[in-house]
Structure formats: structure tokens, C-alpha cells
């Protein structure tokens, strides 16, 4: 697939000189007006931009990251992580208890995600309704929006010939144990299994927002600007978003650049993600005490299994099998699920808890290892012990596993160990830092001991690729930061439309749900143009 022709209108640093001339910009400061400013171009911002522009709104969307075409996507992990991910792929919490992966480019995390396309089960959406007043979000009730998203992204089940050896470990081992491995849906058109999703799809098969909703928005008249970081939102009847130029780390900036933007509009939509969104609102003095609180991350841990045959976990679609049997522990709606991870050597070596020769010996046999992951729906104890705070000029993230979430992680690791051994693994590398060498499989293995392991910070390696819920929505400002229309309490016409708004742990990979709820919310907002944009 080719690059949409409308993407040629994205204002990148290379177009600054031309824009300065045509817009008569003075002293590097671009002042412009719009009906709405959207901050962020991922699963939330891109959908909102398309929907509002299509309905006649004058839309300006800014994105901190750069715009990349598939010709710039390559298999160099260091380069790709530095350019396509926030903090080069390692958003590390203040006490080094968690490392978070999050995208940063035109397309946000949709450019680098692993395509998994799911919507939460009813026990999750029922909890949203009962505790937070979120009505009408069951899969059945949301079907018009979910189906529209599926159609735009080409969502379909992964064909059997593309289920790779890494994912097949879950299918084979799960079936042997009487579990129910399910084939996942992915969002692509023409995937051939290159396995490069996390580094950007070089053949435009994965339907990231820069191939879908963004060109749709531009076609409808939206202005999209890359490499612009929102510094502050000034509230008022007319809001002002102040943004500053953020150069790409690996590309020399042109000699003539737009240094800052000041965009005035009656409506602002924050779609900056669950890490940067709260930080932006906090430094702008916007929102109540729920901004940045109760960050959910789907805490994730890995077991590597060594097999006699080649696995090459990085080849093929990253995620094609899921095991959800542990999803709903004791009818609570909380628990864990098992997926596979397509780690490449850099990321894999950072997750192997050994040092020196022991680590090198593992990496020498890297192609024979699979990687299964446990993901936990956090919040089983009522609120996640995680937050985002902007202080002393810096965004800070805090995280610690709560007791029940920790127990669910251990239950998941026990199940994953059993599945991996049932599939034929000869050695396991556990994420417990007390281990100094791989665990040798004997054939008479009992993994009950895992349930007694420590989940204290430093004892268990935990990561995340799903930050969400840090600006949660509820029917009462005592329970959330934004209302049921996703408008920030106490701040008319400032909305949050991205994965930040979930009031509980989501329990599934966030992309489809985020696009669906933002499609619903932005369509509702679009119908109020006259009322919302009247000055």
C-alpha cells in the first residue's frame, strides 16, 4: 500500500520555511486560530480529528513526535526505539519499579503496537456502569462504533499460516493443559509476517492512524503539525495552547524553523496519552485531584522458554494467540491473561535477569527462546498504586504492585510456566531477580512455589505497554477527573480523549476500545459545533 497523498500536507520541520513564508510568521512564533486544538495523534487524537474535521470544525492537531514514512522504518532497535518511542522505549518509574513502552510519532502507539484488536468483556463494562456511571459501553451496545473501527483498520483473525512458533507455544501448551487458547484479531491489510510491527511496519500493512484517521482528517481540512510539544494550556472562554518545537534526535533541524506555536480555540482535546496528558494538565493548573491518580498499566512479566528447535520469536505477526482462562478470578472481574511477546535482542537482553557470562550464554541461543507474557488487570484492590506527577519541572511516574494484583501476577506466571513446559520447553528464565541461572525442566515439575514468590519492588521484573486510566472519567468529580462526555470537571470545553479516561483497568490491549469510545465521544461533540465554538 502506498502512503496516502493527503499525508504530504503534514507540516514537518522540512516544511517550516515554506510555512513561515506563506503564513507570514514573525520571529519563529506561529499564532493561529481554530475551532479545536487536538494534542496527540494516536488512537484517540487521530479519531477525534477525523470526526470533527469531517463535521466542519476547523481542526489543528499537534504531535510531539516526528512523522515517519515506511521507508524510514528499519530493523535497527536502538535507532527505532529512540525515534519512535517516548524516552527511547524506557519510561522508567521514579523508584525503578516499572518500565513502560509508549509510542511517540505521528500515529502515537498505533505506529509501534502489536496489532492486537480486542474489546473488554461485559464484566469490565458492567463495573464501569455500576461504579462510575458509564452507561451503554457493553460490547453489544458499542457494536456500531467498534464495527466501524474494525472496518477502517481491516481487523480480522490472524490466518493459521501466519501464527508463528512463538505464539504456537501458547496454543500447543494451552491445549495440552485443557485451557482455551484463542486466535487473536489483528489490524492490517496485506500482512506477510515480517515481524517488524514494534519498529514500524515497512510495507504499510498495519493500519496505524497515520495511514487511516490522520489522512481522513487532513482530507476533511484538518491541519496536522509534527514535532510540536504542548507545553501549556491556558484556560478561558478562548483557550490558548502553547507548543514548542521538538527536533528529531537523529535528523538535523532545518536552519529556519517554527520555534513555538500559540493556537487559540474555544475547544481543546487532550489526547497526549496516560503519561504526558496528566503532566500537561498539572503544569497548566487544570483539573482536580484525580488528574494523574490511579494510573493503570496492565503490569506485565515475561517467562522465556528454551526449546530444541528454532523459535525466532521476532518473526511473524507479534501476537496471534491469547489465553484468557485466568481473566476473571473468583468472579471478581480481575485476573490475568497470557499472550506472546516478539522481543528482539536489545529488549530481550534487558529482561533476562542475569549478568556477565550467564546473560551472554542465554543471548547466544536467543533464536531458540520463546517469550510468553502475563498481563494483569490492575486495580483488584480498588485502586492501582500508580500515578503521574509533574513537579520541579519534570514528569514523574510512580508504581507499585498492590497485594491482589501481585498475587494475580504470580498465578499468571505459574500458568505460563506450565503452558511453556507443556509445549516442550527444556529451560525457563523466570522474571524473579533472585535467579542467577535458567531453571532446568525435569519432567516432574511442580510450579506451586511460584505462588510464594515475592512481588516486592526489585524482586520481580515488571514492564508495561498499556498505560491508561490516569485521567479517569466518572459521573461525579469525587470519583474522576472528567465527566461522562470526557469533559474535564470545572473546565468547560477542555476534553480528554484517549486511553487516559478508563475508570478501571481495561483488561485488553487498548487500541480498539480507545478508538471506539473516542469515535462515540467526538461524534457527540461534533454535533454541538454551534454551541461549543460560539465566542
UniProtKB/TrEMBL annotation:
Gene3D superfamilies: FAD/NAD(P)-binding domain. Residues 35-68 form the FAD dependent oxidoreductase domain. The keyword RNA-binding does not apply. Residues 83-299 form the Glucose-methanol-choline oxidoreductase N-terminal domain. One of its GO terms (molecular function) is oxidoreductase activity, acting on CH-OH group of donors. PANTHER family: LONG-CHAIN-ALCOHOL OXIDASE (PTHR46056:SF12). This is Putative oxidoreductase, GMC family. It comes from Leptospira biflexa serovar Patoc (strain Patoc 1 / ATCC 23582 / Paris).
Amino acid at each position: 500500500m502506498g502512503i496516502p497523498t493527503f499525508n504530504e500536507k503534514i507540516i514537518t520541520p522540512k516544511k517550516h520555511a515554506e510555512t513561515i513564508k506563506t503564513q507570514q510568521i514573525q520571529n519563529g512564533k506561529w499564532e493561529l486560530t481554530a475551532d479545536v486544538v487536538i494534542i496527540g495523534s494516536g488512537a484517540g487524537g487521530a479519531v477525534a480529528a477525523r470526526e470533527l474535521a469531517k463535521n466542519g470544525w476547523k481542526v489543528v492537531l499537534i504531535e510531539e513526535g516526528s512523522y515517519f514514512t515506511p521507508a524510514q522504518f528499519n530493523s535497527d532497535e536502538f535507532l527505532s526505539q529512540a525515534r519512535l518511542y517516548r524516552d527511547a522505549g524506557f519510561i522508567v518509574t521514579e523508584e525503578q519499579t516499572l518500565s513502560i513502552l509508549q509510542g511517540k510519532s505521528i500515529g502515537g502507539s498505533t505506529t509501534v503496537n502489536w496489532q492486537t484488536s480486542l474489546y473488554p468483556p461485559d464484566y469490565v463494562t458492567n463495573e464501569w456502569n455500576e461504579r462510575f456511571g458509564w452507561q451503554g459501553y457493553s460490547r453489544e451496545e458499542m457494536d456500531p462504533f467498534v464495527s466501524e473501527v474494525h472496518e477502517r483498520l481491516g481487523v480480522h483473525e490472524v490466518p493459521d499460516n501466519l501464527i508463528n512458533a512463538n505464539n504456537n507455544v501458547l496454543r500447543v501448551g494451552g491445549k495440552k493443559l485443557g485451557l482455551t487458547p484463542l486466535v487473536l484479531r489483528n489490524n492490517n491489510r496485506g500482512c506477510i509476517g515480517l515481524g517488524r510491527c514494534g519498529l514500524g511496519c515497512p510495507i504499510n500493512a498495519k493500519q496505524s492512524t497515520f495511514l487511516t484517521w490522520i489522512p481522513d482528517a487532513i482530507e476533511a481540512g484538518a491541519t496536522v503539525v509534527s514535532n510540536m510539544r504542548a507545553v501549556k494550556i491556558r484556560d478561558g472562554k478562548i483557550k490558548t495552547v502553547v507548543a514548542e518545537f521538538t527536533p528529531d534526535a537523529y535528523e538535523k533541524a532545518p536552519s529556519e524553523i517554527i520555534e513555538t506555536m500559540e493556537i487559540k480555540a474555544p475547544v481543546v482535546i487532550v489526547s497526549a496519552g496516560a503519561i504526558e496528558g496528566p503532566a500537561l494538565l498539572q503544569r497548566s493548573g487544570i483539573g482536580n485531584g484525580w488528574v494523574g491518580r490511579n494510573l493503570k498499566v496492565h503490569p506485565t512479566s515475561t517467562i522465556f522458554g528454551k526449546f530444541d528447535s528454532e523459535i525466532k520469536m521476532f518473526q511473524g505477526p507479534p501476537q496471534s494467540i491469547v489465553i484468557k482462562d485466568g481473566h476473571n478470578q473468583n468472579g471478581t472481574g480481575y485476573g490475568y491473561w497470557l499472550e506472546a511477546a516478539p522481543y528482539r535482542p536489545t529488549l530481550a537482553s534487558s529482561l533476562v535477569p542475569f549478568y556477565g557470562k550467564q546473560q551472554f550464554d542465554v543471548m547466544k541461543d536467543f533464536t531458540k527462546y520463546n517469550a510468553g507474557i502475563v498481563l494483569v488487570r490492575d486495580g483488584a484492590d480498588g485502586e492501582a498504586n500508580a500515578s503521574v506527577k509533574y513537579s520541579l519541572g519534570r514528569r514523574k511516574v510512580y508504581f507499585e504492585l498492590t497485594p491482589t494484583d501481585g498475587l494475580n501476577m504470580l498465578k499468571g506466571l505459574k500458568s505460563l510456566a506450565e503452558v511453556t513446559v507443556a509445549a516442550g520447553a527444556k529451560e525457563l528464565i523466570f522474571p524473579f531477580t533472585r535467579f542467577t541461572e535458567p531453571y532446568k525442566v525435569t519432567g516432574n515439575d511442580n510450579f506451586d512455589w511460584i505462588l510464594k514468590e515475592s512481588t516486592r519492588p526489585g524482586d520481580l521484573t515488571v514492564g508495561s505497554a498499556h498505560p491508561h486510566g490516569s485521567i479517569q472519567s466518572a459521573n461525579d468529580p469525587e470519583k474522576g477527573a472528567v465527566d461522562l462526555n470526557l469533559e474535564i470537571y470545572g473546565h468547560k470545553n477542555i476534553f480528554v480523549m484517549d486511553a487516559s479516561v478508563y475508570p478501571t483497568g481495561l483488561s485488553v490491549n487498548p487500541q480498539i476500545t480507545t478508538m471506539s469510545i473516542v469515535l462515540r465521544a467526538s461524534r457527540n461533540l461534533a454535533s454541538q459545533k454551534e454551541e461549543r465554538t460560539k465566542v
